[in-house]
Amino acid sequence: NAAKRAGEAAHAIATFMAADKDGLMSLSSGWFALQHKSLGELNPKLVRGYASALTPFQGALVGDVKSVPGFAIIGDGVDVSSARSVFAVIDTDTQAGNAFNDSAYQRVKDYLHSYAEAVSAGTPDGLVNLQHAAELAGVVDGGQRESGNGAIQTETVQHWINRAGFEIAAAQGARAGDPDIPGEFFKSDGQLKSPDDVTNNDLPRYATAMINFSARHGQPGLRGDFRHWYEDAAGK
């Protein structure tokens, strides 16, 4: 069917990009082929086409293949360096890279939300969503670094740890008066502020509050687990 064919086509693109990353980052061009430029510099429209085809399969790039017919795991299923290579090639065009990374970051938020909902419900499958979130955020970061494109901005590992803590606290129904979270981190309607609602000066205290809440509510390994998966995926 059409969905399976789209998955197979996207898988072929991803496999090609991962296998030929070094060549695609430095293609010969110009007189006597003495210049070297990236695929994004030489053919930005092609890179944007690749990015568009692969956007629905960003989760599959880090092993989440449960709902994408036709797209098998690339690489060995443990090491996500193949996914990092795909992001690196796409990041050679700034427009494609920013759009692709924005979509990936929305997916990271969705994974963290699913993780927190599973934790709140007491179901055991939540941790795989945390791993997918950490690895996807990590390959975005590592891909940008490998591309060398400084025009593309990425989020830090701490940003996502804060987000994970926020999702846990929100799913557990944290309210003003909670012993772990200072009152200033709640909105006037009693809702917990997200990391995006907190000033940079207050973020360290916010981060501590989220980690304390998570630890008290059965997730003491949240920060360490997330950082480990993220840094492996980022190639650090």
Account of the 3D structure:
- With 236 residues, the chain is mainly α.
- The protein has 11 helices and 2 strands; from the N terminus they run H-H-E-E-H-H-H-H-H-H-H-H-H.
- A two-stranded antiparallel ribbon has the order 1-2.
- Helix 1 crosses helix 6 (81-90), helix 9 (157-171) crosses helix 10 and helix 9 (157-171) runs antiparallel to helix 11.
- It is elongated, with a radius of gyration of 20 Å.
- The mean pLDDT is 90.
Summarize the structure.
It contains eleven helices and two strands, in the order H-H-E-E-H-H-H-H-H-H-H-H-H. It has 236 residues and is mainly α.
The percent of residues in helical segments reads 55-70%
Lateral arrangement of strands in the main beta sheet: 1-2
Individual helix count: 11
What is the H/E string? HHEEHHHHHHHHH
The pLDDT mean sits at 90
Low-confidence stretches: none
Biggest β-sheet strands, sense, barrel: 2 strands, antiparallel
Looking at this protein, list some descriptive labels.
2 strands; two-stranded antiparallel ribbon; mainly alpha; 236 residues; elongated; 3% strand; 11 helices
What's the layout of helices and strands?
Elements: H1 2-19, H2 21-25, E1 27-29, E2 35-37, H3 39-42, H4 44-54, H5 58-61, H6 81-90, H7 94-121, H8 126-147, H9 157-171, H10 203-216, H11 222-234
Antiparallel strand pairs: 1-2
